[in-house]
């Protein structure tokens, strides 16, 4: 992943800086009884620093063989330290030849495979460090170094994992945005050509009747199917549902569904309830206006709330009809629409004028 690049460059810089620090320590000849052997260890460290820097720069080589070799070389240099220190190993303040250089594989494991791998590598390096200083009376120093190694492995692994997850999410968001733009482009092209022709055939067929009417009906069905196809939306984040995808199912030759280009995200249960309420409203349209009655569904996001409007051009609802239906035990509107929204903290407004149709407005805080 591209996000790993800065991590590997930082580790390369750390290796070089730690190598310089180890050279300075050995050049002082403090605590090293066999400096010649120490310089041989430094040479191995220098060669591996150069090789590892080049190898880790290639993403295809960042695999277990390289990571294992990195850890093995570091342990070899670390375990050679007692022979370099010789009789001076017990001197106060003496450090192993790799000094801080030994933390490099811990960082590499953490960046590549996360917290657990980083912690495991830190434990292995810490065990080697403890063994190499078994003759020294520096228990507190060893404990501090071990804790620091373990913390570094865990923390760097955690940060690297978060960075990778952020990059994956950004990539998915970019792909979804590109797909949405492409869908919108196709929808525009289809709307300007195929859908308009199908709508014209549907309308003219209904006017002419007979075989032309059947042809118009088939054209209307194909128009509805095509509209639903081009309105398919990408999946919503876990735990939420894009209301547009649920409302699109109601689209047909007699029901027009309109929604914004941006997602209308609601908790899954709330989105299902809103869609069910819209379905109940459309059932009422068919029941009281006829199966071929036209209806329009409009979904939008306004002032922090999702609003869905269902409108028809039927005969309207006579004054007092809803109250009388509830009193007679017919709870279609009272329970299926108003009841659902009341449970979610939403509201339902019904406006109906005899002879001019009915409008049901469902509003739910987003």
From TrEMBL:
SUPFAM superfamilies hit by this protein: ATPase domain of HSP90 chaperone/DNA topoisomerase II/histidine kinase
GO molecular function: kinase activity
Domain annotation DUF5931: ranges: 1-168
Coiled coil: 159-196
Pfam families assigned: DUF5931 (PF19354), HATPase_c (PF02518)
Entry annotated with the keyword Nucleotide-binding: no
One GO term of the biological process aspect: phosphorelay signal transduction system
Domain Histidine kinase/HSP90-like ATPase: 276-365
InterPro entries recorded: DUF5931 (IPR045975), HATPase_C_sf (IPR036890), HATPase_dom (IPR003594), Sensor_HK_TwoCompSys (IPR050482)
Keyword annotations from UniProtKB, A to Z: Coiled coil, Kinase, Membrane, Transferase, Transmembrane, Transmembrane helix, Two-component regulatory system
TM segment ranges: 7-24, 36-57
PANTHER family linked to this entry: NITRATE/NITRITE SENSOR PROTEIN NARX-RELATED, OXYGEN SENSOR HISTIDINE KINASE NREB
Full protein name: Sensor histidine kinase
Source organism of the structure: [Actinomadura] parvosata subsp. kistnae
């Amino acid at each position: 992943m591209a996000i790993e690049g800065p991590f590997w460059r930082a580790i390369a810089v750390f290796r070089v800086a730690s190598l310089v620090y180890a050279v300075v320590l050995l050049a002082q000849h403090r605590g090293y009884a066999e400096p010649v052997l120490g310089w041989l260890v430094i040479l191995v460290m220098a060669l591996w620093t150069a090789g590892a820097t080049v190898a880790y720069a290639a993403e295809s080589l960042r695999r277990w063989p390289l990571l294992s070799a990195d850890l093995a070389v570091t342990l070899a240099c670390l375990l050679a330290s007692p022979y370099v220190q010789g009789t001076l190993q017990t001197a106060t303040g003496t450090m192993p030849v790799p000094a801080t250089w030994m933390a490099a594989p811990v960082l590499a494991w953490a960046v590549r495979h996360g917290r657990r791998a980083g912690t495991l590598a830190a434990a292995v390096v810490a065990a080697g460090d403890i063994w190499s200083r078994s003759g020294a009376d520096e228990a507190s120093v060893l404990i501090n170094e071990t804790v620091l190694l373990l913390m570094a492995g865990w923390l760097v692994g955690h940060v690297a994992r978060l960075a990778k997850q952020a990059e994956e999410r950004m990539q998915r968001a970019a792909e979804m945005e590109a797909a949405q733009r492409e869908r919108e482009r196709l929808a525009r092209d289809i709307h300007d050509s195929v859908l308009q022709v199908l709508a014209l055939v549907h309308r003219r067929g209904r006017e002419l009747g007979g075989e032309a009417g059947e042809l118009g009906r088939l054209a209307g069905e194909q128009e509805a199917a095509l509209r639903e196809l081009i309105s398919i939306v990408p999946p919503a984040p876990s735990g939420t549902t894009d209301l547009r995808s649920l409302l699109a199912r109601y689209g047909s030759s007699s029901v027009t569904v309109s929604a914004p280009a941006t997602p209308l995200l609601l908790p899954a249960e709330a989105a299902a309830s809103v869609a069910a309420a819209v379905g109940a409203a459309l059932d009422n349209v068919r029941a009281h206006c006829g199966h071929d009655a036209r209806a329009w569904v409009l979904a939008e996001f306004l002032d922090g709330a999702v609003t869905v409007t269902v409108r028809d051009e039927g005969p309207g609802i006579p004054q007092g009809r809803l109250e009388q239906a509830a009193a007679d035990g017919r709870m279609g509107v009272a329970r299926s629409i108003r009841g659902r929204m009341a449970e979610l903290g939403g509201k339902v407004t019904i406006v109906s004028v005899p002879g001019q149709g009915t409008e049901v407005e469902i509003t739910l805080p987003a």
